[in-house]
Amino acid sequence: MLMPKKVKFRKVHRGGRIKGLSYRGNKLSFGSYGLKSMDIGMLNSREIEAARRAITRYVQRGGKIWIRVFPDHSMTKKGAEVPMGKGKGAPDHFIAKIKPGKIIFEMDGIDEETARRALRLGSDKLSVRTKFIKNN
User: Tens of pLDDT along 18-77?
Assistant: First the structure.
């Protein structure tokens, strides 16, 4: 799974509401086909990995896949049945904050129909609404 090798601070502020549109990473840079987010959300590193595996399995090692998001924001969690107070919980998993318009995956080297089906399978694993886009 994706996670940073090293972080400056173990625990980060949650950062409030995610607002606005994605102005960086909102165009295809590497491949001909892509999966673009339509919602604001937080993608868990497990979701990204599950989507990547679904896409690679469908294309059967054909073409090339780029993951354009990286989970670098740690989320903490307190243990089960722990009373309130006593500070913030331990780091549990990493997430990537997603804004509308952000490209999540890109593909190249395969035909459009295969890419469309593969990215559809991958999008079913994600917690944000997405749409298939292609380079003109």
Answer: 999 999 999 999 999 999 999 999 999 999 999 999 999 999 878 999 999 999 999 999
| E-state strands within the chain | 33-37, 41-44, 64-67, 73-77, 90-98, 103-108, 130-134
Amino acid at 80: A
**Degrees (nearest 5) of the Cα angle 15, 76, 17?**
20
76, two tokens: 């903490």
Tens digits of residue pLDDT in 64-116: 999 999 999 999 999 999 999 999 999 999 999 999 999 999 999 999 999 99
Spatial separation of the C-alpha atoms in residues 72 and 70, rounded to whole Å? 6
63 with 30: CB under 8 angstroms? Answer: no
Predicted TM-score of the model (pTM): 0.90
CATH T-level fold of 42-76+91-134 = Aldehyde Oxidoreductase; domain 3 (3.90.1170)
Other Cβ atoms closer than 10 A to 136: 5
Q: How is the chain split into domains, by residue range?
A: 42-76+91-134
